[in-house]
Amino acid sequence: GDIFDTVIIKDPNVMKQKFQEIISQINTLHQEGTKIYLLRGNHDNANDMKLYFKNITMIDELTYEGLNKKKYLVFHGDQCDMSSIIKSMKLARLGTSFYEWCLSKRSHSSCHSSHFSKRFKLVIKKILSLLFRYDRKLISYLKDKAVHGVICGHSHQPIIKTIKNFDYLNS
C-alpha cells in the first residue's frame, strides 16, 4: 500500500511519469504469469491504481504461509489505526506541507530540517498510536484472523519485533 502518495502528487499524469518504470515492471511481471496482488494503502486512490495496473487484483488483505509454516496476515495496516478517523485530508496536507517546507529549508541551508521533520512526524505518530491503542486493536484483529503475525507497512518505519507473541514485520 501507499504505492503512490496521492496526498503529495495530485496529478495522475505526473504520477504516471514519475513511476513509469515501476508500473511497467509490475505490469510485465503480471503479463508473464506472476501472481501479483495490490494492497491499497490509505494514501492510494483505487481508481488511479486501476488505471496504472490493469487486470491486477486489488485486495485489502491476504493470508500468507511463510517457509516457517507460520500464517501471516498481509495488509497495509491502517485498518487498525483508529486515529485515521480524526485525520482529515486537510490535516494530512498540513503535515505534508510542513514536511516539504522542512525539506526546502534543508536544501537552502546547512540545517538538518529533514531530520527534524522526520523525528517530529515519528513522535506525533507514536503519540497517536498510544492514544488510539493501535497495538491493542492490531492484536485483537490478528487473534480474530487466527494468524501468527502480520506483514504491513502503514507506519512507514521498517521494523521486526514481537508484540504479545505475534510477529510484527513492518516494511
Can you tag this structure with a few keywords?
171 residues, alpha/beta, 5-stranded mixed sheet, 7 strands, 45% helix, 18% strand
Task: Please provide a brief summary of the model.
The protein has helices at 12-18, 20-31, 46-52, 89-108, 113-131, 134-145, and strands at 37-39, 57-59, 61-65, 71-75, 149-152, 159-163, 166-170. The chain is of the alpha/beta class and 171 residues long.
Question: Layout of SSEs?
Answer:
Blueprint: H1 12-18, H2 20-31, E1 37-39, H3 46-52, E2 57-59, E3 61-65, E4 71-75, H4 89-108, H5 113-131, H6 134-145, E5 149-152, E6 159-163, E7 166-170
Parallel strand pairs: 1-2, 4-5, 5-7
Antiparallel strand pairs: 3-4, 6-7
Helix pairs in contact: 4-5
Radius of gyration: 18 Å
Strand order, biggest sheet? 3-4-5-7-6
Distance between the termini: 10 Å
Mean pLDDT over the full residue set: 76
Helix content: 40-55%
Q: Which band does the percent of strand residues land in?
A: 15-25%
Order of SSEs, N→C? HHEHEEEHHHEEE
Number of helices: 6
Structural class: alpha/beta
Major sheet attributes:
5 strands, mixed
Residue stretches low in confidence (pLDDT < 50, at least 5 long) are: none
Q: Write down how many β-strands occur, each being a DSSP E stretch of 2 or more residues.
A: 7
* Overall 3D form: flat
